[in-house]
Amino acid sequence: MEARRTATTVATVEDNSRVLVHSDETLRRRRLAVLFRAVLVVPHCLAVSAWTLLVVPLLPVSWSAALLAGRPQVSLHRFLAAYLRYDGQTTAWLSLLSGRYPDPRRTREHPFAIDVPEPHAQRRTVTLLRLPLALPALVLSSVFGVILALAAVGAWFVALTLGRTTAGLQELGTFCLRYQLETLAYALLLTPAYPRLAPPEASSEPG
């Protein structure tokens, strides 16, 4: 009984440190926005690329701070969390998982919500070995990226024809994107929780 209670507690803690992805949007998609999706997303792709150029040199700083303090530095964590949300919401819009145009200034208010937990204590040994530990998840994440792209193509044709996507395509795409975001969050030291296929069962505090 005690072992079961301990396992439940550990699982709850892990869920509370995971990235949550949820949306209250309908499945309706405007046909004109669907038709010109690839063109309309270009400014956001450029913005994400520019933001990525800022993130890359900050990673060694964030890694060193987490290694010394045993947890990510708060301001760096917030910056990286905003980057994760914006990147995810841009991908969600391009993949027709969201009908709301992304806004880098309002990533917290976007209906395709990506909740990043507040900074958690992280074991220094795991932080030190974060990149090799993340490699299997990164490989699987790339596979899900291909599946997400294929689902997005299917959703594009469906939405252009019907003016809406389907619940099945929405669920598949969200599943793939969630795993990708969990992997990126783990690699960026935003969370100590290793990416998992099963969705989180507990709510995390948004960050």
Main features:
mainly alpha; disordered C terminus; elongated; two-stranded antiparallel ribbon; 4% strand; 207 residues; 8 helices; disordered N terminus
What does this structure look like?
By secondary structure, the protein is mainly α. It has one domain (26-187). The protein is 64% helix and 4% strand. It has 8 helices and 2 strands, in the order αβααααβααα. Strands 1-2 form a two-stranded antiparallel sheet. Helix 7 runs antiparallel to helix 8. The longest helix has 33 residues, at 130-162. The chain is elongated, with a radius of gyration of 18 Å.
What does the secondary structure layout of this molecule look like, with pairings?
Elements: H1 2-16, E1 20-23, H2 31-35, H3 37-40, H4 42-69, H5 74-94, E2 112-115, H6 124-128, H7 130-162, H8 167-187
Antiparallel strand pairs: 1-2
Helix pairs in contact: 4-5, 5-8, 7-8
Radius of gyration, taken over Cα atoms and rounded to an integer in Å:
18 Å
- SSE run: HEHHHHEHHH
Q: What's the domain count?
A: 1
Strand order of the largest sheet: 1-2
Characterize the overall form.
elongated
- Provide the low-confidence segments as ranges: 1-13, 202-206
The chain-level structural class is mainly alpha
Q: What composes the largest sheet?
A: 2 strands, antiparallel
Helix content: 55-70%
Task: Give the overall average pLDDT.
Answer: 90
Distance between the termini: 34 Å
